[in-house]
Protein: 3-dehydroquinate synthase
Organism: Evansella alkalicola
Amino acid sequence: MDNKVLYVESSKHTYPIIVEPESLSSLYSKIEEHSDSKASRFFIITDDTVAPLYLDIAVSSFPIKDKVDTYVIPTGEASKSLSMYEKVMTAALENKLDRKSLIIALGGGVVGDLAGFIAATYMRGIPFVQVPTTLLAHDSSVGGKVGINHPLGKNMIGAFHPPSLVIYDPKALMSLPEKEWRSGFAEVIKHGFIADESFLTWLQDKIVSFQNISMDVLTELLIRSIKVKVAVVEQDEEEKGIRAYLNFGHTLGHAIEGEAGYGQLTHGEAVAIGMEFAVRFSEKYYGHQLEADKYFNYMKDLGYSLDIPSDMDINQLIHRIKLDKKSHSSKIHFVLLQKIGSPKLVEVNENLLKAELTGKGGV
Amino acid sequence: MDNKVLYVESSKHTYPIIVEPESLSSLYSKIEEHSDSKASRFFIITDDTVAPLYLDIAVSSFPIKDKVDTYVIPTGEASKSLSMYEKVMTAALENKLDRKSLIIALGGGVVGDLAGFIAATYMRGIPFVQVPTTLLAHDSSVGGKVGINHPLGKNMIGAFHPPSLVIYDPKALMSLPEKEWRSGFAEVIKHGFIADESFLTWLQDKIVSFQNISMDVLTELLIRSIKVKVAVVEQDEEEKGIRAYLNFGHTLGHAIEGEAGYGQLTHGEAVAIGMEFAVRFSEKYYGHQLEADKYFNYMKDLGYSLDIPSDMDINQLIHRIKLDKKSHSSKIHFVLLQKIGSPKLVEVNENLLKAELTGKGGV
Ligand SMILES: NC(=O)c1ccc[n+]([C@@H]2O[C@H](COP(=O)([O-])OP(=O)(O)OC[C@H]3O[C@@H](n4cnc5c(N)ncnc54)[C@H](O)[C@@H]3O)[C@@H](O)[C@H]2O)c1
Ligand SMILES: NC(=O)c1ccc[n+]([C@@H]2O[C@H](COP(=O)([O-])OP(=O)(O)OC[C@H]3O[C@@H](n4cnc5c(N)ncnc54)[C@H](O)[C@@H]3O)[C@@H](O)[C@H]2O)c1
């Protein structure tokens, strides 16, 4: 593949996503080429897992080290909090960032979401560059959603603030634990299910385990998966319609993730279970088979468990599904597949859902 | 005046500003007419000075009281804090506001800025309606700036999030203490200085004290003053150029306000001193008289003191002027007047400024 640069048109500006091995070590020159190397200061935010692996490489790329400040947050979802937000804001002010400064998010979705929200609200908004280091973060690098959690709900505080540039070094994924590969790969598969069956067969062909993936394959995988999300988001940035398709597998997935206790199952592991269920439910709903077993067998081979954990209470899951929605209307919506690549947002009956979840759904 | 509705074109949407006596008591029907009365919930944020005066009137206008929640913050600038932000966010979540809910800011600039920032970041942004109850808030109702303070600086955390509607009831200003009239009126006069001398002469003619202003005069005053700000902001929402003119009187004003200790001098009282200085400095800079004495005499009649408080250290003021800027470049910029109505942003020499501040500036 030659085309390693994708462009995302957000309502605010168009920005490039560069997927390129070794790009991390030329971070500064990429910024110079595609963004604002004239920034008054650079503020790199990362976590304490990523810092020892990649922070030096990133900082080394800058010619004037005096202009670079760094902030290392504790690894994990708990850092997406108002108290961490306040700490990072304070550091940004102490480091005398101004409106012409640039924030750089070096890490996974947690770093990206927090650092992006800092950028969105520092002096009413300054630009930021996203440097994703997880597979899952290919998802968060498109769409402009940034934010933090509140004890009463995930991602409840936030903004739309697209990055001005995304620099994705697939080599950085090499240090990712298997569990994190699996978490991110579920979103890759999701993009196949909702938009492009040929992508699923390509994945089956190219990725037989999370070890020894070639840089070429990984680069292509990232680009193809990102393209699906770009296409959806560009058509519906404001989440009025088809952007909902990205929730395929997520309605039940979120409920399972929450019910297990966040951190027990990764996001992707829970979404994988949600996708299998959504396909099964779709088959009932539309009355025809989707021939998806081959993909689910493939996922099992990659280590996914696709069953709802047996200790989970179905009523609790349904309760969570109803709570989870950011709209408090009492209807339950599910993304179903008419066929692979053709999603629909469907309002489903609670009893039908319950029957299907308990395995008692008729045809 | 017939035209009591102004429209502001922001980059996000166009919104109406309605200036109309008694509009507070028809708050809901105004929302119905101009905004989203179908909102899932209404969340009115106000302060504990305004609440006993106007909260009941506002709530009474809603046909379904169940859909209305209220939150009362302590009066004063200290409420523009991250900890108050967190409290109001928590209340919004507890009240089950969703993406279709509407926030209503009932109060002065403090309430407007805080409530607007809540709206900007609640579930990545929901609409809000501004119901200004101070004269100064006619300024904050245009421009879309919302935010809170950080111990290291005022308004350092925030966003651009224009309201979807502004409902201004001039009658509510009747309970405003004289000090707050004077604070807001300085911005009114500023709008005359930077854009429209005929407005200054009109003010001189119509407003001889802050008592007994007729509703007609007050309505016209608000509309004319708001129009000036609208014209500037529409041309330069992003603060790249002429929006700086709105800082006329503010460079020194902010420094004086800060040096006095926030709350000692009102914003407008400090800005008034800053304007007088900026005019005097302009006359030196451009080498001709601006014939502004009549306006400054008028201001003195209204109770403004236009001298830099004698106990203030000029070096400290200059230090603050240099710190205050959101850009940390070391240059000092001042808005000067070539003539009344013709502002220019000028880079000034620190020594020149100092000489003028100490009253030793030659011609
Ligand atoms: N903004 C969006 O649109 C969007 C989309 C999806 C997910 N998210 C958010 O993203 C978060 C999850 O993302 P995530 O899975 O990347 O989480 P994460 O940032 O916590 O990363 C997962 C783990 O991998 C570690 N890690 C990161 N890069 C590494 C590397 N190269 N080598 C070794 N370890 C590495 C991290 O330290 C962490 O322990 C959630 O908070 C979710 O809400 C946001
Ligand atoms: N966002 C912007 O563009 C913008 C522009 C200018 C100022 N501001 C902000 O606005 C704030 C100052 O605004 P303000 O002067 O309105 O402050 P404020 O909201 O504190 O109001 C001033 C005082 O008047 C009281 N009050 C309000 N309405 C009243 C009424 N009708 N009757 C009696 N008392 C009443 C308040 O309780 C308060 O004590 C500052 O925080 C400043 O940063 C923002």
Notes: The longest strand of chain B covers residues 153-160. Residues 5-175 of chain B form a domain with the Rossmann fold fold (CATH 3.40.50.1970). Residues A 47, 49-50, 53, 75-77, 80, 107-111, 113, 133-134, 136-137, 139-140, 143, 145, 155, 172-173, 175-176, 180, 183, 267 surround nicotinamide-adenine-dinucleotide (ligand 1) (CB under 6 Å). Chain B has a mean pLDDT of 93.
